[in-house]
Amino acid sequence: MKTPPRGSKRVDQESDLPKVTTPVALRAAREKKHCSKARAVRVRPEYPLTRISPEMKLMPPEFFQIDALDLAPRLLGKFLRRDDVVLRITEVEAYRPNDSACHGRSGVTPRTAPIFGPGGHAYVYLCYGLHMMLNIVADKDGVGAAVLIRSCSPVTGLETIQERRGQKIDKPLLLNGPGKVGQALGLSTQWSHHPLYSPGGLEVLDGGEDVEKVLVGPRVGIDYALPEHVNALWRFAIANTPWISAPKNTLKPLTSTHSS
């Protein structure tokens, strides 16, 4: 039997392919081989889209012990870490004392006691008997204010997030809502009172970069509150990111004249 020459057509075609190693690149190379020249191949960026710096530090207690309305936008871009999961905070809502939408409006109860603690602690409550909602307590001890974490983007631990959420996706639907954030972090009401500035457990870390463009709008799902609180622009989100919850059309660029 005659041995095929080394320069056979099949071998030449294989050698013409680019040297690729990642799964996304291999898939793109195969698609490009079979598509027409006029059609461009769109390659989705590989996860993670945001990378965590090894130099990031825990936020100190005094960072949290300010008015919730001031703390809320400052939390944008910060990181939440529990075990192998790290999330970047992309959307929040502020809840203040004398706010008819705040859980502290009726005073201290067994459920709301955590919100009256010192700033920097977690307040996790069960919503509709289904969703664990993570709040970061703001201001001084006894004030009764907090910031709700509405949405995040994934940084590390995607497989753990997907397992906890029961969804094998890496799109905003995975984390665009407060109940989804609580589920992704594996939280329960037992996490209330936990200090977020202490090593271990659930932590808030410095994002390393300030968020330059912020969106602002009214809070979501508080129709029971007084009109001035329903209309208050106390919802904040990072601009130019898809990792935020609905409704998006009520969010506008933040200006120095927003409601306070």
Explain this structure to me?
- InterPro entries: Formyl_transferase-like_C_sf, MPG, MPG_sf.
- Keywords: DNA damage, DNA repair, Hydrolase.
- It holds the Pfam family Pur_DNA_glyco.
- Its EC number is 3.2.2.21.
- By secondary structure, the chain is an alpha+beta fold.
- It has one domain: 3-methyladenine DNA Glycosylase, Chain A, CATH 3.10.300.10.
- The protein is 20% helix and 21% strand.
- The protein has helices at 9-16, 23-34, 61-64, 68-75, 158-165, 178-184, 227-230, and strands spanning 79-82, 85-95, 122-127, 131-138, 145-156, 202-205, 214-217, 235-238, 252-253.
- Strands 1, 2, 3, 4, 5, 6, 7, 8 and 9 form a nine-stranded antiparallel beta sheet that branches.
- A hairpin with a 6-residue loop joins strand 4 and strand 5.
- The longest helix has 12 residues, at 23-34.
- Mean pLDDT is 84; it is low at 1-50.
Keywords summarizing the entry:
21% strand; 9-stranded antiparallel beta sheet; 7 helices; 260 residues; DNA repair; disordered N terminus; 9 strands; 3-methyladenine DNA Glycosylase, Chain A; hydrolase; DNA binding
